[in-house]
Structures are given as structure tokens and as C-alpha cells.
């Protein structure tokens, strides 16, 4: 762990959810989330958190996510919202931005390929 022994791990309160969660026949996905128990403060940065402490906290949060039964649903929620802060579905905000950028590029490529196909079929 990167945290220095003389620095206590600081955690922030979890911000309220900004949009209603999806529900299926079994209920809302977040009811099964491991982070709803006692580790919730790991997922959001306190103000002025030192880099080493942030990295250690994020790694601890990702370990919680790794054992969560609804990790995929949580990740998709964070990507669809999009959630600007915290660790969601095992990804940091920066990692989610990368995933979203890749998805946007893929969508553009698929649209171009479809347009090219339509032109070829019409011609």
C-alpha cells in the first residue's frame, strides 16, 4: 500500500445518487452492492487528498469492487450517468473517461462503416 504509516487514511462522505437507479424484477442493483456496507468512504476522495493516499484509497476501493456481485451494473451506471467522481464498478473517474472516449470512437467508426456500406449497396 502506498499510504505512509504516519498519515491516517482520510475518507469523505458518499455524495447522494444523482439519478434513480435501474430496477429489475429482483429490485435495484445497488441494493446488492458490497460498498453499501462499511467501506463506502473509500470510493470518494476527501478534499486536498495527497496523491499517495488517493492511489492507496482507490486501490482499496477497487479490491472491494472486485468482490462485488453487481460490479458490471455499477460500472454501466457510472458510464451512462456519467459519474464525475469516485470509484464506480472498479474504475476511477479518469479510467471511466478513457472508456467513454473509446466507446465514442468505436461508435463513430461503426457509423462510418455503415455509411460506407450503404453507399456501396446503392452504387
UniProtKB/TrEMBL annotation:
Cofactor note (record): Binds 1 [4Fe-4S] cluster per subunit. Following nitrosylation of the [4Fe-4S] cluster binds 1 [4Fe-8(NO)] cluster per subunit.
Chain sites annotated for binding [4Fe-4S] cluster: 35, 65, 68, 74
Predominant place of localization: cytoplasm
Region (Disordered): 1-28
Biased composition (Low complexity): 7-16
Localization of this protein: Cytoplasm
InterPro entries tied to this protein: 4FE4S_WBL, Whib
Co-factor(s): [4Fe-4S] cluster
PTM remark: Upon Fe-S cluster removal intramolecular disulfide bonds are formed.
Signal peptide: none
Record-annotated 4Fe-4S Wbl-type domain positions: 34-98
Domain of life of the organism encoding this protein: Bacteria
Pfam families reported for this sequence: Whib (PF02467)
Protein keywords: 4Fe-4S, Cytoplasm, Disulfide bond, DNA-binding, Iron, Iron-sulfur, Metal-binding, Transcription, Transcription regulation
Function: Acts as a transcriptional regulator. Probably redox-responsive. The apo- but not holo-form probably binds DNA.
Protein family per UniProt: Belongs to the WhiB family.
The protein's name: Transcriptional regulator WhiB
Source organism of the structure: Streptomyces litmocidini
Amino acid at each position: 500500500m502506498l499510504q505512509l504509516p504516519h498519515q491516517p487514511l482520510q475518507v469523505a462522505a458518499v455524495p447522494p445518487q444523482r439519478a434513480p437507479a435501474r430496477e429489475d424484477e429482483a429490485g435495484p442493483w445497488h441494493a446488492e452492492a458490497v460498498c453499501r456496507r462499511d467501506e463506502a468512504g473509500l470510493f470518494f476522495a476527501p478534499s486536498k487528498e495527497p496523491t499517495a493516499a488517493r492511489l492507496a484509497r482507490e486501490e482499496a476501493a477497487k479490491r472491494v469492487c472486485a468482490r462485488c456481485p453487481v460490479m458490471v451494473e455499477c460500472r454501466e451506471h457510472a458510464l451512462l450517468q456519467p459519474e464525475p467522481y469516485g470509484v464506480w464498478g472498479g474504475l476511477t473517474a479518469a479510467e471511466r473517461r478513457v472508456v467513454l472516449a473509446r466507446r465514442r470512437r468505436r461508435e463513430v467508426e461503426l457509423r462510418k462503416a455503415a455509411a460506407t456500406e450503404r453507399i456501396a449497396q446503392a452504387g
